[in-house]
Amino acid sequence: MIVSEKVIHVFFAKKQTIVFNENIQQLTENIQKQYSENPHDIQLQTILAQIYYKYQNNYKIALKMIKDILIQDTLEIDARLDLAEIMIDFNLGSKEDIQNLIYECYNLDQNYWRTYYIHIKYYDWIQSQDLFLIIVLKQFLIKFPNNIWLKVYLLQILSDQNKSQLKEENAQEFLDSDFLDYDLMRRLAYILRNEGFNEKALQLLEQGLNLNPNSFMCLNNLGYFMKTNHKNNLECIELCKKSLQQNFRNLATLNNIAYTYEDMNNFKESTKYLKRYLDIYQSPYQFKSIAYNYEQLEEFEMSFYYLLKGLKKFPNSPILNKRQQLIFLKISGQEIIDKEEFESLSQKNCDLQLKLNEPYYYNPHLILNFVFK
């Protein structure tokens, strides 16, 4: 398996895939010059907008350009898809807004593959189950059987379950692609790492960063690689911090750095990043992790408080309900022996929730069964 050093930058405009093979700085200058001479050229404007949000993480300028494109051509599909991708990558707007944009694109053209690609990114972003993503991707690939972006996405998800069965000759086919830009590189690196080709995975991540030094996902994935393959938590944290400098709303990096700090028993720092995650996107897993961190710090009231907040948002979450029962018992500071003591603890828990100004969320029947089974 050979990872050759190629300079490839891929853009999408007017339903075309456009490839450049020059340094990104030189490319940016050339496109800016051409655009200044042709300010109504939608293809140039679309490419420049993608440079801003993909290579400079300046989505605000990109959004202004996209707005201008849509004023010029209300039917422009790539501008809509760029808008949806920005909302996903930078966690902006609502799920409904992104869905509506994607459905608008289907209405404009049901045969444009990029709409299907952004749609699977959306499903992944809302944390759909892997099995669902696999089923949807296989359906998409029936329509677009040779599409490298959809094929690599499917292999990436399958590799998490050790089901990609990627052979060296198949990997080489992707590595030789004329569309192998920094983003495909980091996805292929993810697959190769899961398949045990660690040296090649590292080469791809480093090469991806050479093509786009500001890629927050390449920085995040390299950090994860350093943690899991080189057991270097400190380097992982430094790379995650660089990633967050590029996109402080990147959930994958916030998770990565939070759980790395947790592995290092630095529960305060871990909690700080988990709270930042919750400020952007609420998930039961982060509530549970914050509760766990406070438990390790022996701040049981705060642990219980975050479980309550989580249950208020996700009342049927099994992981939150189970963790709440355990913390409920720990608040007593001693082992529960009989029902009298249970009732005393129950009152203490009720008082605690009143103190925290939270409604009473625990399930007494579940806890009673747990204690006196």
Describe this structure in words.
The structure is a single chain. The chain is mainly α and about 375 residues long. Among the domains are: about 215-270, no CATH class; about 280-373, no CATH class. About 70% of the residues lie in helices and about 5% in strands. The chain is built from 20 helices and two strands. The chain has a two-stranded antiparallel sheet with strand order 1-2. Helix 7 runs antiparallel to helix 8 (about 150-160), helix 10 (about 180-195) packs antiparallel against helix 11 (about 200-210) and helix 11 packs antiparallel against helix 12 (about 215-230). About 40% of the residues are buried. The model is unreliable at about 360-373 (pLDDT under 50).
What string gives the helices and strands in order? EEHHHHHHHHHHHHHHHHHHHH
Number of helices: 20
The proportion of residues in beta strands is under 5%
Uncertain regions spanning at least 5 consecutive residues:
358-373
* Secondary-structure-derived class: mainly alpha
Strand order of the largest sheet: 1-2
Biggest pleated-sheet summary: 2 strands, antiparallel
Shape: globular
- State the helical fraction: over 70%
The N- to C-terminal Cα distance equals: 58 Å
Q: Mind telling me the C-alpha Rg?
A: 24 Å
The chain-level mean pLDDT equals: 89
Strand runs, count: 2
Organism: Tetrahymena thermophila (strain SB210)
Keywords: TPR repeat
TPR repeats: 182-215
Protein name: Tetratricopeptide repeat protein
